[in-house]
Design goal:
The protein is mostly helical. The protein has one domain. It is 77% helix and 0% strand. The chain has 14 helices and no strands. It starts with 6 loop residues before the first helix and ends with a helix.
């Protein structure tokens, strides 16, 4: 019931509904169905194989961020449970679910898990911002405002990466700044905020040494290269023949659109982002729409399947995880 009282939940529902309404209003539905009918579904199956590789590299990266205190197979199943829950529950509950699950793997703590999940998302955002300007270089037909925005994201990504590296290597200095700033505002609890920032910086420990930072960067690049391949192969199914950089552009658009408020699973916003990106390239809108809906449906179904496998592997019930996650979220 607390979910139904959340403004964020209802905003997401409204945004998803508006996106879906606009898609069905402006796109020729018969052409979309025809594009789906003649699609070559073996490419969609191959895109799922690339998705598995993507998830495996993510699991390796998360294990590395957790200082190799659990196995890759364990992080693989924990993250897959999180993806399943994010797809069916509101407010991205799956991210918190895998943090809660970590308490069953001592000596890891939920605080350590939370810091790595936050840092993981930050790194993913920076990777997308880095991919975007590179992918735009291969698309001469894009409007100037898109190119300008892509260049701006490149600058922001570089600045953000430098800030993250500096923060990781100057932990005590950052904490002193946070404490000093909070003390100037009586309504802020300086000690509480210092603990929160310290927990976040703990997740950046892999950036305090060149070798570990390089490994984290390598795992992140391999992760995102795999998902671009998944997009490219799935687009092949609908007669679209994107280059690797064109597929990367579509992937970036999808990833950035998922940051908008939406219903569980990014319904509507994902499709709008993908259709807009493919249309900007100049390709058929009906094929783009058919690709967006079927690729989303395939990946969503696959995430549910591997999430269920993860529940079996961890010997945890769905109800137990949901209760634990919402209970912790409301604390």
């Amino acid at each position: 019931m607390s979910i139904l009282k959340s403004p964020q939940f209802w905003l997401g529902i409204v945004v998803s509904a508006l996106c879906l309404g606009a898609i069905f209003f402006f796109v020729d539905q018969q052409a979309v169905l025809e594009a789906a009918r003649v699609a070559d579904y073996k490419w969609l199956a191959l895109s799922v194989v690339a998705q598995i590789v993507y998830l495996w590299f993510r699991a390796i990266r998360w294990r590395f961020m957790l200082e190799n205190k659990i196995s890759t197979m364990q992080t693989f199943h924990l993250q897959n449970i999180g993806y399943m829950l994010t797809g069916i529950l509101p407010l991205r509950a799956g991210e918190l679910a895998r943090v809660v699950l970590l308490k069953g793997y001592p000596p890891l703590t939920m605080a350590q898990g939370l810091s790595t999940v936050v840092v993981e998302r930050l790194i993913d955002l920076l990777m997308v911002l880095a991919f975007l300007p590179i992918s735009v270089l291969s698309l001469p037909t894009l409007p100037d405002w898109v190119r300008g925005g892509a260049r701006l994201t490149a600058v922001l990504a570089v600045v953000a990466i430098l800030i993250v590296i500096i923060a990781a290597n100057n932990r005590s200095f950052i904490l002193r700044i946070v404490t000093a700033v909070c003390q100037r505002f009586p309504f802020l609890n300086a000690d509480a905020w210092a603990k929160r920032v310290d927990a976040l910086l703990q997740g950046l420990v892999t950036l305090t040494q060149f070798r570990s930072g390089a490994m984290l960067l390598l795992f992140s690049i391999l992760t995102w290269l795999s998902v671009v391949v998944s997009y490219q192969w799935a687009m092949f199914a609908f007669g679209l023949r994107p280059t690797y950089l064109q597929a990367a552009f579509v992937m970036c658009a999808a990833a950035l659109s998922m940051a908008a408020p939406s219903s569980p699973g990014g319904l509507g916003v994902f499709h709008a982002g993908v259709i807009a990106a493919i249309s900007l390239i100049g390709w058929d809108e009906a094929k783009a729409t058919s690709f967006a809906f079927l690729y989303h449906a395939v990946i969503f179904s696959f995430n549910i399947l591997i999430g269920i496998i993860g529940l079996t592997f961890t010997k945890t019930s769905f109800t137990e995880i949901v209760r634990g996650t919402w209970g912790w979220k409301q604390q």
